[in-house]
Amino acid sequence: MTALHPQPSATTSPDVAQLAGEFRATVLPAAKDFLKREISANTLRDRWGPYYYDIFHPFDLNVEQAWRSATDTDGKLESGPPAADPNHELPLKLFPVSIAHNNLDRLIEVLAGELGDGTAEATKVPERIVDFAHVVDALNELLTSLAE
Amino acid sequence: MDSQNILQQLVDRGIAPGIDGATLSSADVVKGHESAWGGAGNLYPIRPYTLTPAALEAFTVRERIHVRIDGLGEDIVDLHGLGVYRRHDPIAADGRELDWAGATVTAQFLSLQVTGHSEVFGQVKVSNTPAKPEGARVKPSPAPGHGKVMPIKDCVTSLYPRFEIEELGTVVDTGDLVVRLESRIAMVPPVGDVSRTSRKYPLYDSDGRQLGELIAADIEIGALLHHVPIASVVVPEALAEVVA
Hints:
By secondary structure, chain A is an all-alpha fold. Chain A has 4 helices and no strands.
């Protein structure tokens, strides 16, 4: 497995360039191996897990902290409907990265649930393999564009 | 590695019998509503990691179902429509002040109506069953072995879907078996959320005869259409058990 970088502090700014680099070093090769049917869904999940929890999780905490700092919120109950506020654009710039990672985690979970130690070739739900390829591809593009 | 290789590999190899490169059309892919991928203005209404009081909320829904019906065949059907739920006041964790990280949020599904078309099944409509306890529960997501709570929350949606299938000429459902879809969310309402089933469900007609199965269901939550704060909520006992 690719060596994982140390966790960033939860008080630092989200480092999307570092996340993009780790994604390319860890997730893309695992995704490629899975789609080539060289590794099982369980192995895919095993390779995704350390990235998700040790690299993405601190990044996600930093995204949350950046949001709280920018909006002066503390996670307590707020009133009123969600308001369309252009001032939120910048603090929310990295939020799609969080949404996509969390949706991808669930997708890998259901792939592992269906296939276990089997490869993609054994799937009875091929549309989710296609989803997986598209999400990985789109997330890589998103990370690359944000890191530039 | 060039990421384009990932998609190209699918085209070159195919995925499984009956699935070829044409399936790569992005219109068929479930990867989260486009607004959740960014873009100017798309995220303005989003307030992540934030608790709000009870409300009625309506939102767009896209659902992709993979269904097999005896005598007709198997198909993947793309459905679009609306969902409405009554979201309850958030509940604080024991011994903890009410905040996003520790709170549990539940909601009652009031309506789900999505429709689409299939070459195999004709017109397809999926709706919920209001007479049964249907809802969602959002609770803290622990990071395994790390002793930490993620900024996201685990969401479990419980539904009793009904499938109107034109070519079948009748409605089928999962009987007394509740369909569970799970996801990870970072805001309520969960714009951009993709929830997925993790098992198959048998489909029965009104006489209890099994006529097929729901092989998989994947749901994207899209735009929030309407939000109405409400002063009080009574959670039916049966629903409380479902979302407990």
